[in-house]
């Protein structure tokens, strides 16, 4: 008679039909663990010294200079040799009491939120599509995504700017000639703030989707097909299978990808700055990165720009700390 052993204490057996229980690996006692730690010694910390020194030189020193500048009155005169005066928190007070700062901050957060949501949504749909596509079409789609990913942000912005050009853009021509929408004849897309950010969002999302697609597609290949097929046999629809099986499997990947997208979209500079040069109104379309550039570099008020940059850096550090904390939790699990 065939018996099935489900207990952990069962002895290994060679009889056909019985489950062979593998012997448990020896547990590491405290002495072995201590010996391994002693064998590592200080070597890992010594190996970290060169990278730490490079980071301190590249990131640490400019950050210290930025903090010092944010507490000083530092304008064009100081650039040409005049000694800066210490004003301490006056720059921060001026920034935090300026209504323009809050308008720019709200605009930045809103723009980043829309870009992140649409990027994650479209990236998820395209990744799911890639799983079902035949191999030749999947390769073709992958090549197209890689080309979009490889295109520099400034080049992409200029090309998209041509497509939305008021007089010669292919978008206006298509809407008028193909769909008969005469109101888009010579329509200035970049003058109105809403349509300006619509064009900017298209450019940002177009450039960010490949990263999300490839990351999620790699995760989707790790979802067991047996579980999906079992759920399908139980009558679960496509949305239910995604919500109950696929999403829990990929939840860490979704979270990490979303946090990275928030960081990148909050820091968007090139697309906004280049579109403003093509035809946007700066005062109504500034995001935080472009606003810092205009106050400090274009406006010559480096003290105020330093305070703005420090506030922006604190916001980004808060988001980054959340990301690092989640990574540490993943490692512990």
Quick overview of this protein structure:
The protein has 333 residues and is mostly helical. The chain is built from 15 helices and two strands. Helix 9 packs across helix 11 (238-266) and helix 10 (225-233) crosses helix 11 (238-266).
Walk me through the topology.
Layout: H1 30-40, H2 43-70, E1 72-73, H3 76-79, E2 85-86, H4 90-96, H5 99-132, H6 135-150, H7 153-163, H8 170-177, H9 193-220, H10 225-233, H11 238-266, H12 270-278, H13 282-285, H14 288-298, H15 302-332
Antiparallel strand pairs: 1-2
Helix pairs in contact: 2-15, 4-15, 5-9, 5-11, 6-9, 7-9, 7-12, 9-11, 10-11, 11-15, 14-15
Structure explained in plain terms:
It is a single chain. The chain has 333 residues and is mainly α. Helix content is 72%, strand content 1%. It is built from 15 helices and two strands. Helix 2 packs antiparallel against helix 15 and helix 10 packs across helix 11.
Features:
333 residues, two-stranded antiparallel sheet, 72% helix, flat
User: How many DSSP E strands?
Assistant: 2
Number of helices: 15
Global shape: flat
The low-confidence runs, each spanning 5 or more residues with pLDDT under 50, are 1-16
Radius of gyration: 28 Å
């Amino acid at each position: 008679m065939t018996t099935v052993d489900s207990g952990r204490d069962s002895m290994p057996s060679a009889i056909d039909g019985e489950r062979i229980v593998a012997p448990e690996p020896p547990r590491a006692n405290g002495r072995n663990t201590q010996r391994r730690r002693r064998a590592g010694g200080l070597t890992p910390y010594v190996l970290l010294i060169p990278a730490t020194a490079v980071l301190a030189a590249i990131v640490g020193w400019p950050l210290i200079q930025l903090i010092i500048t944010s507490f000083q009155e530092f304008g064009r005169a100081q650039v040409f040799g005049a000694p800066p005066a210490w004003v301490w928190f006056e720059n921060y007070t001026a920034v935090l009491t300026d209504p323009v700062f809050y308008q720019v901050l709200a605009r930045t957060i809103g723009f980043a939120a829309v870009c992140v949501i649409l990027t994650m949504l479209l990236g998820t749909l395209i990744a799911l599509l890639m799983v079902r596509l035949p191999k030749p079409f999947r390769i073709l789609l992958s090549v197209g995504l890689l080309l979009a990913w490889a295109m520099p942000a400034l080049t992409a912005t200029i090309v998209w700017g041509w497509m939305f050009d008021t007089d010669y853009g292919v978008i206006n021509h298509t809407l008028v000639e193909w769909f008969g929408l005469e109101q888009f004849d010579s329509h200035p897309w970049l003058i109105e703030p809403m349509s300006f950010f619509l064009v900017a969002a298209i450019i940002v999302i177009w450039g960010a989707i490949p990263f999300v697609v490839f990351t999620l597609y790699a995760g989707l290949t790790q979802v067991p097909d047996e579980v999906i097929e079992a759920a399908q046999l139980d009558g679960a629809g496509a949305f239910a299978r995604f919500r109950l099986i696929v999403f829990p499997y990929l939840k860490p990947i979704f979270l990490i990808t979303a946090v990275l997208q928030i960081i990148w979209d909050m820091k968007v500079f090139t697309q906004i700055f280049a579109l403003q040069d093509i035809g946007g109104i700066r005062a109504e379309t500034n995001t935080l990165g472009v606003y810092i550039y205009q106050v400090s570099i274009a406006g010559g008020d480096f003290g105020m720009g330093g305070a703005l940059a420090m506030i922006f850096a604190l916001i980004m550090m808060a988001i980054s700390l959340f990301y690092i904390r989640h990574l540490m939790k993943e490692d512990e699990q």
